[in-house]
Amino acid sequence: MTHPHDDPAADTSAADTSAGPARMRLARYLASAGIASRRRCEEMIREGRVSVNGQAILTPVCIVIPGQDVIRFEGRILTLDEPVYLMLNKPAGYTCSSQDEHAEHLIYEFLPENLARVFSVGRLDRDSEGLLILTNDGDLAQNLTHPSRQISKHYIADCSGTFTPDMADNMLAGVEDNGDFLKATQVTLKRRWPDHVFLEIVLAEGKKREVRRLCASQGLTVTRLARVQFASLKLGNLPNGEWRRLTPEEINDLKHMATTPV
Predict the structure, then answer these.
(1) CATH, residue 126
(2) Which residues lie closer than 8 Å to 12 by C-beta, 6 or more apart?
(3) Which domain range does residue 216 map to?
(4) Looking at per-residue confidence, does 16 or 182 come out higher?
(5) Given a cut of 80, is residue 54 above it in pLDDT?
(6) Which has the minimum average pLDDT: 1-5, 32-36, 78-82, 161-165?
(7) Which terminal Cβ of the chain has fewer Cβ within 10 Å, N or C?
(8) Contact 25, 8 (CB under 8 A)
(9) Same domain, 22 and 122
(10) Are 64 and 23 in contact (CB under 8 A)?
(11) Rounded Cα gap, residues 92 and 227, in angstroms
(12) Active-site residues: which are they?
C-alpha cells in the first residue's frame, strides 16, 4: 500500500500499466465505486470511515492501486463497477440519500437491487420532484456540480402570490438571504392568474433550496417545484417515479459540458 505522504501527482486512472499498476487517489476510488461525489468522499475519509489494507486512513491525500489494495468503506470491501448513468423522475416525498433514518422514503426504492451502487448528482429536496441524474462516475458528478462550471438547471415553480415583472428583475439581479447570495440566470413567466403563477427559473449554481428562497424573497410561496432540465439533459416524458439509462450521446454531451471551460 502507498501512504498518505506519497506524491499526489501520481493520481491517474489510465489503464496503461507499462510503468507499473495504475494508481489513483483514495477519494477518487471511493467515488468510482459509487459511494458519493469526490468532494463528499474526501469528507468521509476525514470522518474515519475508510481503511486501506486494514489501516484507517484519515486524509484523502492517499494513493491506492485498484485490484491490489483492499479498500473498505464502513467495513465493506469496495470494488469498481462499470460506469452507470441514469435519469430518474423523482416524485415529491422522497429523500436523495442512500441512508437516512429520519427519511420516510428514499429515491433508491425505485432502483433494482442488482444495480451497481450509484449516487445523485446534486440533490432535490424531499418536497421537490423531477430530473435527477444518478451515477457512479465521481469525476462527472464533481464537474457537473462544481460552482465554477456554471452548469444550468431548469425548474418549473408553481407559486401562490401576485407576480410582477419587478420580481423577475430582482431574482435576476440577486438577493441576499441568510448569508447566501441567491441569483437566477433566467426567469420566464409561463402562466399567470391573479393570485397564482407558473415560472421557469434557471440557476447556474444551485444552493440549498435556492428556488424556494428566491421566490420567498419576492413574497411568492412555492407550492410545487420540478426540475425539468440539467445541463443538456431534459426530463421529457419520463413518467413520475420511473428511471432509464442515459444514451451514449447524452453521456457524451454531459461530459463535454462538464469539462468545457466557462
Answers:
(1) 3.30.70.580
(2) 22, 23, 24
(3) 152-230
(4) 182
(5) yes
(6) 1-5
(7) C
(8) yes
(9) no
(10) yes
(11) 11
(12) 125
